[in-house]
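=== RUN LOG ===
request id: a7f3
mode: sequence -> structure
chains: 1
length: 563
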Amino acid sequence: MSEGWALNVVDGWTVPGFTHVRDLGSGASGRVVLAVDDLTQTKVAIKYLDRRLRGDETFLADFRTTARRLSQLEDPNVVDFYDFVETPEGAAIVMERVEGVSMRRILAAQGPTGPLAALAMLGGILAGLAAGHERDLVHGAVRPGNVLVDGDGNGRLTDFGLVPSASAAQSGPAYAAPELWDGEPPSVVTDLYAAAAIFFECLTGRPPFSARSQSGLAKAHRESAIPVEEVPGPLRDLIARGLAKDPAERPKTAADMLGAVEEAAVAAYGLAWEAQGRSRLTELAAQTAESPEPKPSRITTPRGNPVAPPVRSSRSRLIAAVVAGVVIVGGVLGAAMMYDGRDEDPRPEPSPAGSGSPAPTASAAPLAASLADRMGKATAKSPSASFTFRRTGCCGGSAWAQGSFRMVPGAAPSYTMTVTGGTKALRKRTRAVLVGGSAYVQAGKRWQNASLAGGGRGYAALAGQVRSGTAAGNVVALLRASTSLNQAGGIYRGTVPVSALGSAELTQVASAVKARQVTFALRLDRAGLPAQIRIKVGQGGRVQWLHTSYANWGRTGSINAPH
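=== RESULT ===
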């Protein structure tokens, strides 16, 4: 048997319909190869599960359920799951091929990442966990080897659910919460504990606890003091809460912990923290990728397949990924170039004794008016764009949407989007089209028509909130209403009193957190069109964040009501 053919089969078989290219490495859960889909010619990663997992019927039964949920999960911080293939000869996972390096390799090659990169990495992990947890998917094996950093500095989770519950502590002892050592199953808060442990390692270069044996490590997780003094002061509370011995003392959800990260990062490093951190992660990933690493030789494999096609789920998602082309990602992952310098702390809120809305300062008014005029003219010439939106924080519920819009003279912009919310009733990703005052929500093969008047709680209302929060006209209105505005490094930062807001979504969020003003950071492209905007509403422990990224201005066609 030739060397090429030997690599084209793993434990005696290969997933039908794919041609192996090269080995990508092995881990506790199995061997990963780079492969090409014979139908679409798309590169994918295939993980062939270890014999131990294939022989564990309890694990396989649980993972079949996990696989169905993963196939419906789409998030910029989670590696796309395409298929789970089982045959009498073996089992394998077909997933997205991510061009990047793992945090394990980055830490081994570069050592501590610095606080900004560590915060950006933690934010990416938590965003991915939040997306999974909303769909009842506990990761169970959060550790540096399962966090991939791509070329844009995104931290992306892989290997959801690939550790049997009974061995969760032993499979990742440096990151295992105390209750896992006591035999409890993985949970939301054990995932958060592991994320905090990785955060600590990024800050210090080592995990929070160490010992010469697993029993010693178990005792350290249960009893040793949390080494908060080893991390920067502003980040100690994140470590203390994330690594709390008592699960009840940790954040309740990944979204809660993400909000705490946002608060601590902004307080310590300014609004630019995420962009600067992701820029540093990108740099570290690039340096690590250039460092020497043994690379298996490229192989040439025969076409045929010795295994009969298995019964398997549809590959439509993989094909759809090819058709979709480039996916726009944004929201909490706003691109690294959004901020070029450290942001200043927001100005204090206006005194309650003041009456009415403060007038723009002398320095703010000319800049705001000029910028608003420039943007208004630019959007009039290119009245459509694609967008990605994410809402996170304490109040109003999390939300994510992606789609496109077209501005309509004299009327509300028309939108087509995929939208999901943070509650169980809204967690399924659903298509919605907004035209005028009507929302059309896809239910199976049919579209349901609902009025946007009078609010509501369903998908139609959520899509209406997205439109209100992302409309380009509202960005112009924010600029015109700014009471302070400054520009540095291509980023415009300003404050706006709530009483002057033109967005119903922002007004509603501000009311929920009892804020009197909002702050924002805005980046324009070369044509003067919005590229990204991040809006902060509230102060202290009650803060809501709205992040929007825009692209493809002027390239979106008409948007009509579905039939």
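=== NOTES ===
The longest strand covers residues 411-421.
Residues 1-6, 294-314, 319-363 have pLDDT under 50 and may be disordered.
=== END ===
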